[in-house]
């Protein structure tokens, strides 16, 4: 089989996995499969999982690998159509009305048609994703959808079903080519089934130890092998604790980077205490690990690494 051309859609699950790996994203076969199907079927991909497992990174790597613009809609409570889809440039419209009046223009229909034209339309992420003026459909990342409310979800149904948006003053705007849609959620609340039905679904879990070790090798090449093994073993065990917020892959990379910058060759209680803020983000979690549980955990990690090394 000929090599995939840069920017082209992968032709197989294996090519999809290789494409992600080339962007330093290590994906298992199940994720590569659902992503391949999402691209081939032109269906949105709904990625669910804990914060920090790499859901957003998938969209970034995909946009770079396919040589497409990345348009990101960062969701939050209270997100509305004006912020997400479009709004009119009211100051410019008012100025145009005053200039028309000063010029003696009295044709109200002509003025209205002028001020509600495309040049006064401010395109927000949803409308940008449907426009693709350069002819390349973008990767459209709808990030942390669970932070919005059900009303905004309902609005998205039209976008995800028909890849179109209705602007009352202009009519319906349809995408010439559907964007590649990636939706992420941290599952802080359930997303409605009507939206999920329009998507392919995948749960993104924390990586296994071997995969996380390879991630450190790729992302923090200056981190020595012995320290990398200790870091991964420590983080993997830490995730079995009942913490307020488990460390994600991003925190593992940050911790490995911090320890490398400090020129550490191995974990020790003092180093862990000094750098735990790069790994854990809540004081109660930090206080718990800095106590007796942390020392016991470190002893287990060192014994485990010695046994496997």
Automatic annotation (TrEMBL):
Domain ATPase dynein-related AAA stretches: 44-199
Alphabetized CDD domains for the sequence: AAA
InterPro entries linked: ATPase_dyneun-rel_AAA, CbbQ/NirQ/NorQ/GpvN, P-loop_NTPase
Highest taxon of the lineage: Bacteria
Protein name, as recorded: MoxR family ATPase
Organism the protein comes from: Mycoplana rhizolycopersici
């Amino acid at each position: 089989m000929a090599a995939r051309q840069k920017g082209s859609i992968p032709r197989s699950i294996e090519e999809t996995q290789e494409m992600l790996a080339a962007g330093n994203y290590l994906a298992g076969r199940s994720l590569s499969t659902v992503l391949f199907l999402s691209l081939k079927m032109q269906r949105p991909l709904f990625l669910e999982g804990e914060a920090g497992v790499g859901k957003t990174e998938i969209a970034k790597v995909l946009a770079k690998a396919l040589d497409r613009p990345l348009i990101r809609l960062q969701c939050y409570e209270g997100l509305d159509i004006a912020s997400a889809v479009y709004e009119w440039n009211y100051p410019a419209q008012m100025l145009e009305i005053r200039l028309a009046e000063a010029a003696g223009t009295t044709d109200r229909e002509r003025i209205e048609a002028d001020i509600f034209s495309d040049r006064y339309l401010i395109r927000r992420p949803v409308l940008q994703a449907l426009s693709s003026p350069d002819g390349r459909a973008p990767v459209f990342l709808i990030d942390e959808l669970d932070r919005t409310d059900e009303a905004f979800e309902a609005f998205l149904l039209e976008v995800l079903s028909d890849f179109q948006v209705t602007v009352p003053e202009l009519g319906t705007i349809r995408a010439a080519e559907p964007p590649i849609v990636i939706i992420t959620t941290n599952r802080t609340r359930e997303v409605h089934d009507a939206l999920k039905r329009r998507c392919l679904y995948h749960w993104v879990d924390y990586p296994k130890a071997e995969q996380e070790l390879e991630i450190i090798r790729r992302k923090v090449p200056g981190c020595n092998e012995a320290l990398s093994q200790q870091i991964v073993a420590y983080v993997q065990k830490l995730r079995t604790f009942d913490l307020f917020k488990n460390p994600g892959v991003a925190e593992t990379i940050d911790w490995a980077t911090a320890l490398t910058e400090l020129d550490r060759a191995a974990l020790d209680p003092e180093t862990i205490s000094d750098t735990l803020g790069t790994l854990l983000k809540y004081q109660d979690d930090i206080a718990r690990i800095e106590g007796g549980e942390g020392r016991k955990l470190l002893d287990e990690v060192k014994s485990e690494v010695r046994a496997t090394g």
